[in-house]
Amino acid sequence: MLGAAVLLPAVVVVSARSGHTQTAGSSRGNRHQTHVIRVDRMVFAPAPANIRVGDTVTWTNLDVVRHTATARNGAFNVDLPAGASASATMGKAGRFDYFCRYHPAMQSQIMVVT
After folding, report:
1. Which of residues 104 and 23 earns the better pLDDT score?
2. What residues does the EfeO-type cupredoxin-like domain cover (predicted)?
């Protein structure tokens, strides 16, 4: 079970592949975007520079093996079966270093701003 130290809401698994940024409205009138990070050839593509609190990051696994995007501080942990996508909503500003649990040499980071 996730503890109080978790910074982000639950992860939603999505099956569609996407290579673009989408915008969705919120109840406060703010607009949040979805940013896609591709996982290809055992590498996380660089994260977009404009990720804001409330935005969603979707990792799309183009490899034939399973990966994860696991934050070192426990803020998110998305499971990425081969050919699938999964998402997490960024709930707090900061730098989030992450890696693949199955392939620890796969590492990257996300910068989230307010």
Report:
1. 104
2. 24-112
Q: What is the pLDDT of residue 31?
A: 87
5 assigned to some structural domain: no
Angstrom distance (rounded) from CA 68 to CA 71: 10
Question: How long is the chain?
Answer: 114
Q: Which of 10, 9, 13 is closest to 84 using CA atoms?
A: 13
The model's pLDDT over 61-112, given as tens digits with 9 standing for 90+, comes to 999 999 999 999 999 999 999 999 999 999 999 999 999 999 999 999 999 9
For residue 15, the one-letter residue type is S
Residue 44 in any domain: the answer is yes
Considering the entire predicted model, what is its pTM? 0.75
CATH number at residue 37: 2.60.40.420
Instruction: Provide the token pair at 107.
Output: 């590492």
Domains identified in the chain, total number: 1
The CA-CA-CA angle for residues 82, 87, 89, to 5°, reads 165
- β-pairing, 31-40 with 43-44? antiparallel
